[in-house]
User: Fold LacI family DNA-binding transcriptional regulator from Levilactobacillus suantsaiihabitans.
Amino acid sequence: MAIAATLKDIANSVGVSLATVSRVLNYDRTLSVSEATRKQIFEVAEELNYTKMKRRTATPSKQLKIAIVQWYSKTKELDDLYYMSIRLGLEKRCEERRILATRTFQNDLSAIDPDVDAIVAIGKFSDQQVSALAQLTPNLVFVDQDQLCHGYDSVVTDFRFAVEQVIDFYAKQGHDQIGLLYGSEWTTDGKLEVTDPRYKAFKREMTARQAFNPDLTFAGDYTNHSGYQEMQTAIAQLGDQLPSAFFVTNDPMAAGALKALHENDIDVPQRVSLFSFNDTTIAKYVFPELSSVHVNTELLGATAVDLVENRLQTGRTTPQLVTVGTELMLRESTRES
Assistant:
């Protein structure tokens, strides 16, 4: 087996300096050297098996393959466009980077190519599901769930600051009592109940203001139907004490809540203001249009791909947590300040 040459070996053979050899092999065209000498350096490097020369002429690396694991089913994804928007952003970035992306729904791991370079998991996953994914590849990125403590890259939304902004907005309008419709759900294997992070942020901030009232909070399951049911329950239970403002933690629930208010002849926003979260297309296709916290779902998906590329290209093993900010979109369901 031939022994790779050093720069010194090449310099001695050609009769030039180490610096000259280095600059020629790095294709430095600003170097004043004859074409004959340049050609001789490359020929000697090839003859002596210079390894850097070999790397420059190596074939391009293979196309990266990413498996997208969506915890929702195809049908449920259409009911909550938030997760679909994240997936589309992810697939768009893969197309831009010429990465081969395949997708599977409801954690169907049997559909994942065993030769994938990385997996991007969208949604919520139990410890057992995370372990199963890790058996397929160590290169995991989670979107919408913080798995940093388990050693995996994660991309999440800044829920706490967003909720504080909504509460500040309502406080400036004079709303001292704010109702909350939030969600609760389980991972698809039924082993982990996922508490709505917006509920935690809401309770923390309202408690700090000495204004948290558990009787004004109602738990659903993020669906349009549960938003409708929980608002009906709030109207029936609270009567004239129904608060003048509600924060609803996703758009489908907010649309259902809006329907319940309409059916009970409760004017929005004059009697009750509504503020939603995620700002999917649903927020703009109801009447009145919903004020909503805008989450850049496309950026969430794209950032996950960027983390995969960085990990694979640099060999990084330290996990990273990327938090994406939000923006308040004020529309007709809230009164003007």
About this structure: Residues 261 and 267 are 7 Å apart (CA to CA). DSSP finds twelve helices and 13 strands in the chain.
